[in-house]
Write a structure and sequence with these properties.
Dihydrodipicolinate synthase family protein, globular, Aldolase_TIM, DUF993, alpha/beta, two-stranded antiparallel ribbon, 43% helix, 389 residues
Length: 389
């Protein structure tokens, strides 16, 4: 038994499982294109402060990407899950992109990399036309680097553009320029303010219906340059309506960590592919579910994936942007890294009761390859924080 803390005080006993789930069968995924947005592993020995440049453990970080590829998932690199803009600056992201893209080539893994504007963090982050011009230059620099590595580009939402743009026309002009410049089709990413409050009003309006029209106008003008869209609004109805309006050949990659089973399963009018942060801790189980879906067994797919939603909703609860803390906790407990340390000290962003519940839910799903190791590590964390075992 392990003693887990309760919110508001007190503890309760929990009996961890003793056996993991049966190992996944392996093999490529056929019916859906699935990316896991991968976390980065911090270097726990680096002498850093929250304001220091990112100190990454490159060996452990790349090993985790090989773990994702081994299950047939693609890697979405240098995205929100990698603490982009929350501990990982552009210099660190550029190094991460170069290293991961080279690793992908070496092992034959699929990779898509985030293109943003996080160079613009100081006085050069301007408003108005000068700000939009600076955003364009920053996007161009990052797009060139990603294309140089051979990775697919994901045009991420830009905090700087949200601050500088004067309305929908600025988005139409800027994204049109970038899509014309792109050498290969890209993924457009609409990240909602629940993930990053600085993105409120993206696409030129706080009205999501108006923003959707601008987003669709960008795609309609350049359908040959848009492989797909990643939608992270945590609104399943809106995502379904949006994907039904996409031009032929443009995919919808769900980024909805609350409703992903139903969105991936789809309906008689279509389905979503996936680019999800929750597939970082769920990789083996998620891949097994998609392989089940490949056989046409939608019920079997839902039977595997539906029980994971409670864990995902817990990790992504408000404030949603701190979901990375739970993701890294589970990677440590599962044995994918040797410590629970994050860039910028973000391991402190969630409460101890929150982390304890994440452990309990993940253990119940059988996500830990070695349940005894996970229990031992959770006990050590609880002890450090004053919960006697």
């Amino acid at each position: 038994m392990i003693r887990l803390p309760l919110a508001g005080g007190g503890v309760r006993a929990y009996a961890p499982r003793t056996e993991p789930l049966a190992p996944a069968t392996g093999g490529a995924l056929a019916s859906r294109t699935v990316f896991s947005a991968a976390h980065v592993v911090a270097d726990p020995y680096a002498d850093t402060t929250p304001d220091s440049p990112a100190a990454v453990d490159w060996d452990a970080t790349l090993a985790f990407r090989r773990h994702l590829w081994s299950h047939g998932l693609g890697v979405a690199e240098a995205m929100d899950t990698a603490q982009r803009g929350m501990g990982l600056d552009w210099t660190g992201a550029a190094e991460l992109i170069r290293r991961s893209a080279a690793e992908a080539k070496a092992v034959g893994g699929r990779i898509a990399c985030g293109v943003g504007t996080d160079q613009l963090t100081g006085p050069e982050r301007l408003t108005g036309p000068a700000g939009v011009a600076a955003v364009r230059k920053a996007y161009e620099e990052q797009l060139a680097l990603v294309e140089e590595t051979g990775a697919q580009a994901v045009l991420m939402a830009s905090r700087a553009l949200a601050a500088a743009a004067d309305g929908p026309d600025d988005y139409l002009d800027l994204y049109g320029h970038l899509l014309r410049q792109a050498g290969e089709p890209v993924i457009l990413h609409w990240l909602g303010p629940m993930f990053d409050p600085a993105l409120e009003g993206y696409w030129g309006s706080a009205d999501l219906d108006a923003a959707t029209e601008t987003f669709l106008d960008v795609i309609a003008a350049h359908p040959d340059k848009v492989d797909g869209i990643k939608v992270s609004l945590l609104d399943a109805r809106r995502e379904v309506e949006l994907r039904r309006r996409l031009p032929e050949g443009v995919r919808c990659y769900t980024g909805d960590d609350f409703h992903y089973p139903e969105l991936i399963a789809g309906d008689e009018q279509g389905f979503s592919h996936a680019l999800l942060g929750i597939f970082d801790p769920l990789a083996p189980l998620a891949a097994e579910a998609v392989r089940t879906l490949d056989t046409g067994d939608t019920a079997g797919f839902r039977a595997l994936l539906d029980p994971t939603v409670e864990l995902s909703r817990h990790l992504f609860e408000t404030p949603t942007r701190f979901y990375k803390t739970g993701v890294v906790l589970l990677a440590w407990l599962a044995g994918h890294q040797e410590h629970f340390t994050m860039l910028g000290g973000l391991q402190s962003a969630r409460s101890l009761p929150h982390l304890a519940r994440a452990y309990e839910l993940a253990d119940g799903l059988g996500l830990f390859p070695d349940p005894a190791l996970a229990e031992s590590r959770m006990r050590s964390l609880l002890t450090v924080y004053g919960v006697p075992q």
